[in-house]
Write a sequence for this structure.
């Protein structure tokens, strides 16, 4: 089950050597190492904000490796465990074929263990992060995908994954969506949906959504308490307006548009161009997709004043922290109300959290930290991708998520510009 006989032996790859040192080099094409492996010919790969942690030399990484964890491509080779004989395993082990178009989550997951069955796929015991010292990344012309039957999504066979859309609607949508848009399903869009979903479903947000004060909000049949509409008003802050922050805002607006409660969102970033981008995106979305609440994009100091004015000094119902550093999480703590929730999907490093236990106790703050389980978030993210092609479908516009599609030779310059906030989402055409 292979087209490897016709594949080149050497490929082009974007490799990290040391802090701020990205090189485009020729390296051997990967080979099957395990019967569960697949080899994918990468058509497009993306540069993600979390790639900057290694780029900047954070995290103690020393090993030279291929960068990147967002990629889309075509299966060129499958290990021996694929085929009709593989029954009782994740479906792709019996249905995935050479030539199928696939998109991959940014982590490997087996799909068979207790952790995966519970839906926490990003913390699979066999999980590995693409574009790290333990697993070569997707910014290359070919990539080896371990546990591919439990990891990949087969875009050539939409019956192999569920969705809120019918099979025919999925087929029609896939035929009209560009690969640069589908690539967002590797990480940034599912992560944005994940952040919004955690905030909207947090127990401390339930009183506003159910109209019953805490703890009656846990019991749908309890008619003993109700809340005035003004007390149900939701105030959210989104900290960090890079590509994931943009996806978070779009997802949060989409979820709130389906609710009948007043809301207000302040999107926060110190970089003016990012604030301008999120407002352009917001203005592109019709009222059905953004609701009738307030939405503003502001600097840090302006946002603090806005939250104070909006809430009478009480603070935000929930804060979604998308950056992953101590300054951002400190700001989240400052903005959140007592009995509020902080959802953090930014990749934090080694520095300790900038709070004491007493500070957390004094505010009754709840935290949700960590990595998005892309494999289980994919269906929700796909449906939003289809719905919001007005935002996710374009390239290079002031209201487009993707800023540029470039060849791999431009990678060193694109990394440098991205690190300096001079450009937004960059996609690499690995064959350009």
């Amino acid at each position: 089950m292979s087209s490897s006989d016709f594949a080149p032996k050497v490929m082009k790859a974007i490799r990290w050597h040391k802090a701020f040192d990205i090189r485009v080099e020729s390296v051997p094409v990967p080979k099957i190492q395990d019967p569960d492996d697949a080899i994918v010919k990468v058509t497009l790969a993306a540069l993600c904000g979390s790639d900057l942690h290694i780029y900047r030399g954070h995290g103690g990484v020393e090993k030279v490796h291929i960068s990147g964890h967002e990629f889309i491509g075509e299966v060129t080779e499958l290990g021996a465990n694929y085929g009709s004989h593989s029954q009782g395993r994740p479906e792709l082990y019996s249905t995935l074929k050479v030539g199928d178009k696939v998109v991959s989550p940014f982590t490997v997951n087996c799909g068979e263990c207790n952790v995966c069955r519970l839906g926490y796929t990003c913390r699979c015991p066999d999980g590995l992060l693409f574009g790290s010292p333990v697993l070569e990344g997707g910014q290359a012309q070919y990539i080896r995908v371990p546990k591919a039957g439990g990891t990949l999504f087969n875009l050539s066979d939409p019956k192999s994954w569920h969705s809120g859309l019918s099979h025919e609607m999925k087929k029609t949508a896939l035929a009209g969506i560009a690969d640069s848009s589908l690539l967002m399903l590797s990480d940034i869009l599912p992560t944005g949906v994940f952040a919004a979903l955690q905030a909207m479903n947090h127990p401390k947000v339930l009183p506003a959504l159910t109209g019953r004060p805490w703890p009656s909000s846990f019991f749908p049949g309890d008619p003993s308490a109700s809340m005035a509409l003004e007390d149900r008003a939701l105030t959210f802050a989104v900290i960090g307006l890079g590509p994931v922050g943009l996806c978070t805002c779009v997802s949060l607006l989409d979820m709130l548009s389906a609710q009948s409660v007043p809301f207000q969102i302040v999107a926060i970033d110190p970089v003016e161009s990012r604030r301008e981008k999120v407002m352009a995106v917001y203005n592109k979305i019709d009222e059905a997709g953004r609701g009738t609440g307030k939405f503003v994009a502001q600097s840090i100091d302006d946002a603090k004043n806005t939250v104070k004015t909006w809430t009478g000094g009480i603070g935000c119902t929930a804060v979604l922290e998308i950056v992953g550093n101590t300054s951002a999480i400190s700001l989240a703590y400052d903005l959140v109300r007592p009995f509020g929730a902080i959802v953090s999907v930014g990749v934090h490093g080694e520095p300790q959290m900038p709070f004491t236990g007493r500070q957390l106790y004094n505010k009754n703050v709840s935290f949700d930290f960590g990595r998005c389980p892309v494999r289980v978030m994919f269906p929700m993210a796909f449906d939003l991708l289809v719905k919001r092609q007005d935002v996710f479908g374009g390239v290079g516009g002031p209201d487009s998520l993707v800023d540029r599609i470039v060849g791999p030779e431009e990678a060193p310059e694109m990394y440098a510009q991205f690190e300096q906030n001079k450009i937004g989402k960059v996609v690499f055409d690995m064959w350009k």
About this structure: The CA atoms of residues 105 and 186 lie 4 Å apart. The two ends are 27 Å apart (CA to CA).
